[in-house]
Amino acid sequence: MLGPVILAASRSDKMRRFVSAAPGTKQVVDRFIAGETVGDVIPVVQDAAAKGLEVTLDVVGEDITTREQAAAARDAYLELIDRLKDLGLGTRAEMSVKLSMFGQALEGGHELALANVRPVVEAAAAIGTTVTLDAEDHTTLDSMFAIHEELRRDFPGTGCVIQSYLFRTEDDARRLAASGSRVRLVKGAYKEPASVAFQNKAEIDKAYVRILKILMEGEGYPMIGTHDPRIISIAQELARRAGRKLDEYEFQMLYGIRSDEHLRLAAEGHRMRVYTAFGTDWYGYFMRRLAEKPANLLFFVRSMITK
Ligand code: FAD
């Protein structure tokens, strides 16, 4: 019940100002956001690497309103990639990007987002890594998939995300489960209407398993983005049935969530990639994490009261 309310608040400027200024916010934000600067996140990448984990790095930000902000987003990723290169961390870290941060919603946004993301994909390829295009709300996806297809012409390792709550996703999965593709499957984190998405958790979970089966039986590289223990064991079974070796798929989880499970799966020999978000524009990302688990909201409210 609370989830949709929090998701609606994630798009409100008034709430953004309130939450950002609230006492105790930082303490809760720190659980999900690995610092504000490239300097903060590098030790996190090094620590993950020492534990046998890989990362995908997200410079937080979305729904920007000017072309200058879109260019700044591109430059923030280029700075990050430069630092990874200097430290020889290119093979441990890939990038996750939200096209809305690259200008997708502005006038001429499709072309603008493509123009801004391309240099990031090029720079990532130059240090031996890849970029994955996150999935945002359903109105942005046709543009995201078109940009994905365009980038894959020159950079076939460019990944994309699909969301099991959307009715369209089984068809998208069939199209994407082709040789060389890298596809992250998640349940979906946005507030979507009943005309395009399942609203019920059991249906979203069942769809996740159907879509995962398509990916596992296909020829691409599935990236299983979930913390759900039931789905994780089903994924292991589907991989076994599809005859996939341990390096022919990977698990992905979010920084700060079920960290013990990150280590357990890595210790079993699985590839485990931790989606690690950092930066100052954390509001939208943070609110989606609160919406996913009501206990997080209680923790947040308690930290405001006790501050
Ligand atoms: P759930 O059934 O929601 O959760 C299973 C269990 O995981 C819960 O019982 C709880 O123990 C734990 N858990 C889950 N979420 C939280 C939380 N916030 N805090 C504490 N515990 C939690 N969504 C998109 O729409 N687009 C994307 O591009 C995208 N990228 C993602 C990348 C990765 C690597 C991951 C893991 C998720 C991504 N998501 C994305 C979010 C995703 O859509 C879900 O909202 C989120 O993963 C919660 O779903 P779940 O599969 O973990 O299952």
Automatic annotation (TrEMBL):
What reaction gets catalysed by this protein? Answer: L-proline + a quinone = (S)-1-pyrroline-5-carboxylate + a quinol + H(+)
Q: Which UniProt keywords are given for this protein, alphabetically ordered?
A: FAD, Flavoprotein, Nucleotide-binding, Oxidoreductase, Proline metabolism
Q: In which pathway does it act?
A: Amino-acid degradation; L-proline degradation into L-glutamate; L-glutamate from L-proline: step 1/2
Which GO-annotated molecular functions does the record name? Answer: nucleotide binding; proline dehydrogenase activity
Sequence positions that bind substrate:
98, 288-289
- Domain called Proline dehydrogenase: residue spans: 45-298
Task: Report the co-factor binding details.
Answer: Binds 1 FAD per subunit.
Q: Superkingdom of this entry's organism? A: Bacteria
Q: Does the keyword Flavoprotein apply?
A: yes
Would you tell me the protein name for this molecule? Answer: proline dehydrogenase
Where is FAD bound in this sequence?
Answer: 163, 187-189, 201, 226-227
The gene is: fadM
Q: Which cofactor does it need?
A: FAD
Q: Name one GO biological process term.
A: L-proline catabolic process to L-glutamate
Keyword Oxidoreductase carried by entry: yes
Which InterPro entries does the UniProt record give? FAD-linked_oxidoreductase-like, PRODH_bac_arc, Proline_DH_dom, Proline_oxidase
Which EC number(s) does the record attach to this protein?
A: 1.5.5.2
